[in-house]
Write a structure and sequence with these properties.
Elements: H1 9-17, H2 19-30, H3 33-41, H4 46-63, H5 73-86, H6 93-104, E1 113-115, H7 123-130, E2 132-134, E3 139-144, E4 147-153, E5 164-168, E6 171-172, H8 173-180, H9 192-200, H10 202-210, E7 215-222, E8 225-235, H11 243-250, H12 262-282, E9 284-285, E10 290-291, E11 293-298, E12 304-309, H13 317-331, E13 335-339, H14 348-356, E14 369-371, H15 376-381, H16 388-408, E15 409-412, E16 415-418, E17 436-441, H17 448-458, E18 462-466, E19 476-485, E20 492-500, E21 517-518, H18 523-527, H19 532-544
Parallel strand pairs: 12-13, 13-17, 17-18, 18-21
Antiparallel strand pairs: 1-20, 2-8, 3-4, 4-5, 5-6, 5-7, 7-8, 9-10, 11-12, 14-16, 15-16, 19-20
Helix pairs in contact: 4-5, 14-17
């Protein structure tokens, strides 16, 4: 779950410029691989672990602007004190993480999280690992009705799609998932995020739980048949041809490859440049060979425009939205479907730009953001997880950063507020869509997805189909983050520094954007590769016409 926005452009450019120097300094400061691995695997004393609990709670109180929004202070303090008292024997970092994470979820803010450090490898080992892939990572899952289902596979082998994962390394999958659901939080009290996020992030949760793996035996069930497969780390590239094949081919006269002409090289270069530009604009995702931003017309004509946005974090979004809505305008489309399912969020700048194409009225997209410091951006950068080089660079630029922060901070009713530029009234984009809007949402529609959904629902601009968003209607604490490493266990916690919210509220607080039409896919839908939410919208459009 990610929600980021970096407004200080000059600092960002300089950070990239010095990246090489920073990386080198960071590697030096990290110490040896051996020392790192020993530290995360050794048993930490009771006093050290209790000290880490105190440090964690101190950081939360210091930086989180809405710490007691959903859990009263006395209950929160009781939980952290009980955690300390429950630590009675030494333990390693991973076991400590398993005790801390469920307590941290009492903050009930999805952007607050904690994770253990993983095993590190020497350069030669890293190089060898890069040449391999773990077959298990090719599976994507969905958790429905207490069952972990293979939703899709990466690559050619689709035989697992629709199969239920019965057990992993002998442990029931359902039991593992219920445990992992206690190690992260949604925003507020809604529960739709849990099944969605635990399945989407299952592989990461499993590695945090078990550590680095070279192989993994998984038992599946499909069509009343139970079978197992051991997933391994295998070479990414296919093996070279065998010696016998080589001998056979050598008997054939080799044809010398013709060197491409300058004109052919220019054509190849232009095509590569064009592809790179397209990939950047649409946000190419190498693992799945898909795009973050997708646009198409559904049906034989251009009446229905469909836009699937998987996230708001990568690529040149401005060009994408401009070109897409120009096509919609030219086609005179009557219906627009915005698919935000499984969209974990991203940049405020992008969702504000997208919203400007979906309204015909002047609007204020977000309100001023409550913070705990007059210099939140500098606080975000100057953390104990920040590489030494970046700290040095930040120190050099700190006078500029401090001035920029202070100019955007104001005090009101005893609280501090940071003013993003998106607080100012904005006018609709001239290409704004005036037809009927549908929005597809689910429990994995989080953070920025919830912010834009709140704006669209509050202004009665769209019909929502799916399930309640995992992100809260009334806003979330994100914007910039403090990444703090606990001194002894080395767990890394992430703390949002700003309350980001739309200028609309609902009661009771702590719930997501709820759909007008609630539809949740079934196991049968996944097995038959159906999309019941989208089908409902298309049927509604047909009925209207």
């Amino acid at each position: 779950m990610k929600y980021t926005y970096f407004s200080f452009r000059n600092f960002h450019v300089m950070k990239r410029f010095f990246f090489g120097i920073i990386s080198a300094l960071f590697l030096i400061s990290c110490g040896s691989v051996k020392k790192h691995n020993e530290n995360i695997s050794k048993l930490h004393s009771v006093d050290d672990l209790r000290n880490d609990v105190d440090k964690l709670y101190h950081q939360l109180k210091k930086h989180h602007p809405k710490l007691y929004q959903y859990t009263p202070q006395e209950i929160m303090e009781f939980k952290f004190d009980s955690l300390k008292q429950s630590i009675r024997t030494p333990m390693d970092s991973r076991d400590f993480y398993k005790k801390v994470a469920p307590v941290l979820t009492s903050v009930r803010q999805g952007h607050v999280s904690i994770r253990p450090l993983g095993k590190r490898f020497k350069r030669k080992e890293r190089k060898a690992l890069k040449e391999k892939k773990f077959e298990f990572y090719d599976l994507d899952f969905q958790y429905i009705d207490g069952k972990l289902i293979v939703e899709r596979t990466i690559g050619k082998d689709s035989s697992f799609v629709g199969a239920e994962v019965v057990s992993i390394a002998g442990e029931p999958a359902s039991e593992l998932l219920e445990v992992y659901k206690t190690r992260f939080a949604s925003d507020g009290y809604n529960v739709t995020l849990y099944d969605r996020f635990v399945s989407k992030g299952f592989k990461s949760f499993y590695v945090r739980d078990k550590g680095f793996l070279d192989s993994l035996k998984v038992t599946f069930k499909a069509n009343d048949s139970v079978f197992s497969k051991t997933f391994k780390r295998v070479p990414k590239k296919e093996k070279k041809r065998t010696d016998s094949a080589k001998v056979k081919n050598d008997s054939i006269k080799k044809v010398k490859r013709k060197k491409p002409t300058k004109q052919e090289r220019d054509i190849i270069k232009i095509a590569a440049k064009k592809r790179k530009k397209y990939n950047k604009k649409h946000g190419y995702i190498p693992r799945t060979k898909t795009y973050t931003r997708n646009f198409s017309f559904i049906g034989n004509d251009s009446t229905v425009a469909y836009m699937k946005i998987r996230g708001f974090s990568n690529g040149n979004y401005k060009k994408f939205y401009e070109e897409s809505f120009k096509k919609i305008d030219s086609a005179k489309s009557k219906y627009f479907i915005l698919d935000l399912r499984d969209n974990g969020g991203g940049r405020i700048a992008e969702i504000e730009r997208l919203y400007s194409y979906l309204t015909d009225k002047e609007f204020q997209f977000i309100t001023e953001s409550e913070v705990n410091s007059r210099i939140p951006i500098l606080k975000s950068i100057m953390s104990n997880t920040t590489p030494t080089g970046l700290k040095i660079l930040s120190g050099i630029l700190s006078p500029i950063l401090i001035v920029q922060n202070v100019l955007r901070i104001k005090k009101k009713d005893g609280k501090l507020y940071y003013k993003f530029k998106y607080v100012k009234p904005e006018v609709p984009n001239p290409l704004n869509f005036k037809g009927k809007v549908y929005v597809l949402i689910n429990g994995n529609s989080f953070s920025a997805s919830s912010i834009i959904s709140t704006n669209l629902q509050a202004t009665k601009r769209a019909t929502f189909v799916g399930e309640e968003t995992g992100g809260a209607y009334n806003g979330t604490v994100a914007g910039f983050y403090k990444l703090y490493q606990l001194p002894n266990s080395k767990l890394i916690t992430r703390i949002g520094l700003m309350q980001i919210e739309a200028p609309y509220k609902q009661e009771p607080d702590g719930f997501g954007v709820k759909p007008d039409i609630e539809i949740v896919p079934t196991i049968k839908d996944i097995q038959q590769q159906k999309d019941p939410e989208l089908e409902w919208i298309l049927n509604d459009i047909d009925t209207t016409n």
